[in-house]
Amino acid sequence: MRLIRKLTYLSILSLFITFLGGCTKTDSANSIPSYIEVEEFYLSTSSIEGTDSHRISDAWVFVNDNLMGVFELPARVPTLATGAQNVKIFAGIKRNGQSDDRVRYPFYTHFDGTVDLIPDSTVTINPTIGYIDDLDIWEENFEDGGISFTKTVLSDTNFAQDNSDPFEGSKSGVVSFGPDDLFFEARTNEPSFDNFPKVGQPVYLELDYRSNNSFVFGIYNNDGSLPADAQLAIFTFSPKEYWNKTYINLTDAVSGLSSANEFDIYFSAFNNGETAIPKIEMDNIKIVF
Predict the structure, then answer these.
(1) Are 41 and 91 in contact (CB under 8 A)?
(2) Which H or E run contains 20?
(3) What is the pLDDT of residues 27-42, one digit of tens each?
(4) What is the CA radius of gyration of the chain?
């Protein structure tokens, strides 16, 4: 998406050159741009939608349904449109945490309004958005008495609730390794995941995490004919010193398992010497579809 942004800038530059090349005293005022400034997005959620934590990195800006570009926040967007114009602004994310894979997040609403654009002036829009309707949102925030993950038979350790330095609220989930612990793996047993959509319909993991050790996220699946669930690793998280938010795309993995009708998610990690005392912290584990 970085290429799209660069191409957008080149397109705008080309537009200015075209206008300036044929500019006269009578039409020079029409070539003075107006500006739309987007500093940040605000995410508003209900209690059943869970945390309002987000990491919206980009603004996809449309004027009269024409794409002005994809701009990293904070953004100042030039346009030659003037007067009352329809402006739409969509929230963009780094899919799978990759700076070169920037997409509109399919589950957020967007700003849609009439804006008065004045040449050589700036209008600031910081959209308040939410989740779109008719979603399934599952969340483990580690605040309740129980935890939705159970360690597998091969795992030496498990999730625990920790209130020493949570991301938000009063608790986060933590995976700690003792001196003799070599492997961690915990999975869900969540019937609603069996309703994952197929044929390219979006499915995402949202996660806040902090870790000094790499760890893996994946899915278990079964088509009803297997004696044990099949396992598919989807993404490996690298260590992060500070709390980080990411959006992991499960869409292709789920749609590729066209015959599967049972799903669950899992996290795993090895104590492989990356650090002396491995520690993995998570909060607000969301599955959205």
Answers:
(1) yes
(2) helix 2-21
(3) 455 689 999 999 999 9
(4) 23
Instruction: Tell me how crowded residue 96 is: count the other CB atoms within 10 A of its CB.
Output: 15
- Number of domains forming the structure of the chain: 2
Q: What tokens appear for 280 in the block?
A: 């993995």
Top pLDDT among 5 and 79 is at 79
Grouping H, G, I as helix, E, B as strand and the rest as coil, residue 50 is coil
Band the pLDDT of 92: cuts 50, 70, 90: very high
Q: Which helix (H) or strand (E) holds 41?
A: none
Looking at 108, 129, 150, the residue that finishes a domain is 129
Listed residue (56, 49, 44) closest to 288, CA to CA = 49
Identify the residue whose tokens are 């997409």: 103
Contact yes or no for 243/167 (Cβ under 8 A): yes
pTM: 0.88
Query: 184 and 279 share a domain?
Result: yes
Interior angle at CA 269, CA 263 and CA 271, nearest 5:
160
Domain boundary among 85, 113, 129: 129
Same domain, 272 and 169: yes
CATH code where residue 275 lies: 2.60.120.260
142 residue type, one letter? F
Residue 178 has a pLDDT of 94
Task: Tell me how far apart the alpha carbons of residues 145 and 86 are, in angstroms, rounded to a whole number.
Answer: 48
Do the Cβ atoms of 40 and 71 come closer than 8 Å? no
SS (H, E, C) 232-251: EEEEEECCEEEEEEEEEECH
Give yes or no for a cis peptide into 239 (omega within 30° of 0).
no
